[in-house]
Write a structure and sequence with these properties.
Length: 283
């Protein structure tokens, strides 16, 4: 049933292509603009990458935290600043032991434009870190989403504290298996899943895999996509990555694709979506 349904959908989409519809807008849920990226690309060049690829909005974080503000100043309507918690690469490995970190985060949140906290990298064995748990409580108090790149047990630890905390689970977690993700989405209604860097898994050789297709249809309102510029090198591949994301999104029913590529993130960050599905890419 599923395969014949998908085949039909595919045929309809192929027939629809000659209409030359402008590529619909994307909401990127995972961009880094770190100090080493900033050495390579100035804010104007980064915004150009987003515009060229139809990325109307993006969640952007940086190491150190203040770099993203240069981008935000340039394009406050397009950039949604997420408070990065690392000063440098070393922090990425040891932050959960840094007892002074929660106070630093709190001081920055007091000043700011911040719409979320992250990305936090954490293994299951460190999930009881008091520093981590304090940061979860800070996010809760401020009603800010947490972007977490971590094991499933880390997600459990957040929801042990409060089932209402919004978490965006980077890269569909460290074990990106559709069955496991379905269990977590079922269990935790405030959990969202960012699919960045998982494109080859979701659509091996460009074809959307059946288990992922079914997962997206079952939870159409819980997924987001992103490029994840995890290194300066990744910016060189930016257009190619966006093309591969668009390729598998195009294999979904239109309403599901629209939610994943834009509306879910827009809803979470209280951005109007009235015309997000149909308006051509704004330059
Ligand atoms: Zn990342």
């Amino acid at each position: 049933m599923l395969n014949s349904g998908r085949f039909l959908l595919h045929c309809i989409q192929i027939l629809a292509i000659p209409g030359a519809i402008a590529a619909p807008p994307l909401f990127d849920s995972h961009i880094h603009y770190n100090a080493d990226d900033a050495a390579l690309l100035n804010p104007t060049q980064v915004i150009e990458h987003l515009k060229r690829n139809g990325i109307r909005r993006a969640l952007v974080t940086s190491t150190p935290f203040e770099v993203v503000l240069k981008l935000y100043d340039q394009a406050p309507d397009r950039i949604i600043p997420i408070l990065g918690i690392y000063r440098d690469d070393q922090d990425k490995r040891s932050w959960y032991q840094d007892k002074s970190l929660p106070a630093r985060i709190e001081a920055r949140l007091n000043k700011g434009v911040w719409r979320g906290i992250g990305e936090l990298h954490l293994f299951a064995k460190h999930r009881h870190s008091p520093v981590f748990l304090q940061i979860v409580r800070l996010a809760l108090q401020r009603r800010l989403p947490l972007l977490i790149h971590g094991d499933p047990a880390v997600i459990d630890s957040v929801y042990d504290i409060d089932p209402g905390q919004t978490v965006i689970w980077s890269h569909a977690g460290t074990y990106p298996y559709p069955d496991l993700i379905a269990d977590y989405l079922q269990r935790y209604p405030a959990l969202y899943v960012d699919l960045s860097v998982r494109d080859h898994r979701i659509a091996p050789n460009g074809k959307l895999e059946d288990n992922w297709f079914e997962l997206f249809l079952r939870f159409p309102d819980r997924f987001m996509t992103g490029v994840d510029t995890y290194s300066p090198e990744r910016w060189r591949k930016f257009d190619m990555v966006v093309a591969s994301i668009r390729n598998w999104l195009n294999q979904l029913p239109d309403d599901v694709a629209m939610q994943i590529r834009y509306n879910n993130a827009a809803r979470l960050f209280s951005i109007k979506t009235r015309s997000a599905g149909t308006r051509p890419i704004s330059k």
